[in-house]
Amino acid sequence: MVGESAGGITALQVAFLDDATEKYSQAGVLNNVAAPNALYEGPCILTGGFDTSIASMQLTRPDLGNIDGDLNPSFVPYTIKGVGSFYGAIVSDIFTLHTYTKAPVLYMYHQPNDLVVNYDYGKIEGGVSNCFTQFPTFCQSIVNLPYAYGSYGIRNMINNLSTNGVVVPQVFFDSTLNNADCYTQFLNSSTVGHSIDDYNLRTLHMAQFFAPQIDTSSICNTNVLEASGTNTSITVYPNPAETLLYVNISNEKIIVANFYDLLGKKIYTLSNLTTGNKIYLPPLQPGVYLLELQTSVKIYHSKFSKK
């Protein structure tokens, strides 16, 4: 699981927010938010592109649901082995309570002068709000900013927990010495703190850190499909495919082939197949799909790419 900024926040929650009691209070039902003053509509709401009008704004704040969500594209139980968070954050401790027996390894990258997500602990977009005081504008007010732990704060939290017998992730913390202030960041985009200074270097560090977690025994030139509940494996090729998939399967007849998108939504079903180990692809758009094969004996799952 890897994400950047809000994606980093999401990746952290998916992997480590695994106990219902850890759900943030901010994710529950909250009182309706007050509408902005009408004088902000033209110069701020419309010019800034925040919404089409104050009247059209969604002001209710409903419960955001359970921590697992309602979309699960996986057909079989999975284990998250590594998390990459580029200037992500968490709102509170999600490491003390856990259901995992082996914590995913955690790569984090963050710059000290990030104005959007605090490096240590502070208000989300607090640095941006402070910048507005240096460059006064009519629309400078940002209120009710939530506090969160940035990557450095997360690292310190984990280090403190590791002395208390809690299962914690192994951490690789990547950072810079960039301390450019708000004015400098405004004038020189290469000094912006909410960014990656060297994409190739940071992703290389992350890849090298993740590499030992990969189970190399399952890697080959084609996708290996493992039958549910058994150790039997079959292969599907070519991958990526254009119009035809071959299934390396013996003594079993494929009865149904189901195709799903990565959100778990069924796209196509091919039934009453009579083409043996060949599957002629339905009219899929280029992309990655999940494949479910039903035989008279078992159900197999995997994914493939469509050219």
Task: State the main characteristics.
Immunoglobulin-like; Rossmann fold; 14 strands; alpha+beta; four-stranded parallel β-sheet; globular
Explain what the structure shows:
It is a single chain. This protein is α+β, with helices and mostly antiparallel strands. It has two domains: 2-28 and 63-213, Rossmann fold, CATH 3.40.50; 218-306, Immunoglobulin-like, CATH 2.60.40.3080. It has six helices and 14 strands. It has helices at residues 6-16, 41-46, 126-134, 151-161, 182-187, 199-210, and strands at residues 2-4, 82-86, 105-110, 121-123, 147-149, 171-175, 223-226, 233-237, 244-248, 254-260, 266-271, 278-280, 287-295, 299-306. The protein has a four-stranded parallel beta sheet with strand order 1-2-3-6, with helices on both faces. Strands 7-8-9-12 form a four-stranded antiparallel beta sheet, with no helix packed on it. A hairpin with a 6-residue loop joins strand 7 and strand 8. It starts with a strand and ends with a strand.
Strand elements, count: 14
Question: How do the strands of the widest beta sheet line up side by side?
Answer: 1-2-3-6
- What is the ordering of alpha helices and beta strands? EHHEEEHEHEHHEEEEEEEE
Q: What is the first-to-last residue Cα distance?
A: 24 Å
Q: What spatial form do the alpha-carbon principal axes imply? A: globular
Number of domains: 2
Q: What would CATH call the architecture of the largest domain?
A: 3-Layer(aba) Sandwich
- Beta-strand share of residues: 15-25%
The helix content is 10-25%
Largest sheet properties = 4 strands, parallel
CATH class of the largest domain: Alpha Beta
CATH fold-level assignment of the largest domain: Rossmann fold
Unreliable spans: 218-232
Task: Round the mean pLDDT to the nearest integer and report it.
Answer: 85
Rg:
24 Å
